[in-house]
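Reminder to self: keep the SMILES exactly as supplied, no canonicalising. Ligand is pyridoxal-5'-phosphate.
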Amino acid sequence: MIEGKIDVDWDTLFAERTQQMKRSTVREILKLTARPEVISFAGGLPAPELFPVERIRQATDTVLAERGREVLQYSTSEGMPELRGLIAKRLSAGKFQIHPDNVLITSGSQQAVDMIARILLDEGDRVIVENPTYVGMMTSWRPFDLHFSPVPTDHDGMIVGELDGILAERHKIMYAIPTFQNPQGVTLSRERRVRLAQILAEHNLPLVEDDPYGELRYSGEAVPSVLQIEAESRGFSSVEGNVMYCGTFSKVLTPGLRIGWVVAASPVIDKLVQVKQATDLHTSTFNQFVSYEVARDEAFLDQHIATLRQVYRERRDLMLKTMDEHFPEEVIWTRPEGGLFLMVTMPPRLNAREILKEALAADVAFVPCDDFFVGDAGHNMFRLNYSNARPEMIVEGIKRLGAVLKAAVRE
Ligand SMILES: Cc1ncc(COP(=O)(O)O)c(C=O)c1O
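Structure tokens returned for the bound complex:
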């Protein structure tokens, strides 16, 4: 028996790379919003009332009844062949045909983003990102001790013209969310995608195209993925170029099943499989089978996505209209054509973290954007989600937030 209180000083034991790790601000704020009276625009959560619960229950029964022994067993690291085939087919268009071998199933697209860093990044590497960018990528990649080079953005997404200057120095990789960006909601225009594809080729620069929201368009004209534009611009009809495309069922089916994927050239998939084997062997066999059983009925899936689009379009429009009516004129915001978020910019003298305290006192929540920025920008910006709250809650929450903002602006 060891006598006395054991007091291990873990901080002296943790690996050096953990010093760059910190808890996600978004997830911490989500804890604050757990009180039922809080109207939260903070998370990136889909509307739970639209989850296809009955379909998933039926699919669960079916796979257990028909292939029970298989679905409860270990499976291949690449993922379920039928699911890879379905994803390859859904992302193929015209001459651009994706082979299932170029698809790797991951535990959500977050794992895909994380694993890509593990195969490509060394300490000190330079990485190009939109500014602001997805905080979950920063959380995953920061421990590699990278240099992030920010590209400014406007209402057409990343200002691709700025890349020439940045690329005067060698960069290892670029990460971007070209469609309905998190946190801004903006979309990279077709012209910029074409130019970006040229730049990637000229500089032999790999791009991580993170696309969780691409299917959730509510207005405007659809634009092909950079993956597709890049392949076509090189005259490739298949995936051989330098785009690694990450997708997910989280926003169009359910995030709880944790099914995502990477589409990439064969050498990349091959290396990612090695990381997958080291990380978790494979994505849950059971969840892959259930997801496939639901999604293979593409008429159902497409109808479900159409419903999501309709509901989210209404919620986006309602939020924008209520903001127009109740936010002070000193405050501006983005007007996304799809996705789940918009971003608000307050006058520079206001700090979003301070405003969040006032907002929480009024039982309404959002996510301050400073953590989404490389460098010091963003203190006066915050992100609003419009998919999760019901219409009456959107109106009430935005009114409350409007009152908080009006008081702050007048102070
Ligand atoms: C840009 C971006 N990438 C990745 C993810 C992670 O999604 P998943 O649930 O597929 O892991 C999110 C989630 O909000 C996201 O916004």
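Points to follow up:
The chain is about 40% helix and 15% strand.
The first helix runs from residue 25 to 32.
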